[in-house]
Amino acid sequence: MFALIDNQQITKFYSGNRGVTLGDIQYPKSIFTLWSEAERNTIGIFEVTVNTTNKKDEQWYINTNVSYGVESNKAVGSYGTATPKLLEDRNETNEDGSPMLDDKGNQVVTKGLKSQKKDIIKQQASGLLTPTDWYIIKATDVESYSVPSAVTTFRSDVRTKSNTMETAIDNASDVDALATLYQYVNTGTEENPVMERPLGEFPTLEI
Question: In what order do the strands lie in the sheet containing 49-51?
Fold first, then answer.
């Protein structure tokens, strides 16, 4: 993106895919590809650079819109301070402070990140357990059949890991602490990297 700067103010933006007219002079779109930055600057057009210092991962934060201005005779876009997303569940209220209820008379609740992440953990655990449900069903229907020990252990380990993960999520003190649980780091060496995250992983079934 490019911007026209006049008297230290951005007066117009250009995408660079068409020519521009400045005063009585019409310039072809090639000025955005064939001209040097210095040549464009002489007619007041500058490439916009965006400062992403304040931009944060949108999985965890709500970023502001980019605001544009002129700094040191350069067109610069920047983000404001990002806002952490809702961490805990929130009971919604009406303008008068009374509880907001749905059509069935239940409290309207906006789920925070913790509940959202725990729901995903539950879904993952269910997805791992479902393919082995038939072992349990068969053992119930066929008296002489026993569930393989590897399957029993796997199902138990999945439930245990699911609970451990949910506890870790519940214990996160803020959004940054929650995000850290999902960040993979190399716990091995540079030659033999081992990427792990504090939240851990679900077990796998080997029969």
Answer: 49-51, 74-78, 67-71
- Residue-wise pLDDT tens digits, 7-37: 999 999 999 999 999 999 999 999 999 999 9
Task: Determine the Cα–Cα distance for residues 88 and 110; give it in Å rounded to an integer.
Answer: 9
Q: How many helices (H) and strands (E) does the chain have?
A: 5, 14
Residues 6+ apart with CB under 8 A from 114: 87, 88, 89, 169, 170, 172, 178
* Residue 128 burial by Cβ neighbours in a 10 Å radius (0-12, 13-18, 19+): buried
Type and span of the H or E element at 2: strand 2-6
123, amino acid identity: Q
Residue in the structure block whose two tokens are 């201005």: 69
pTM: 0.83
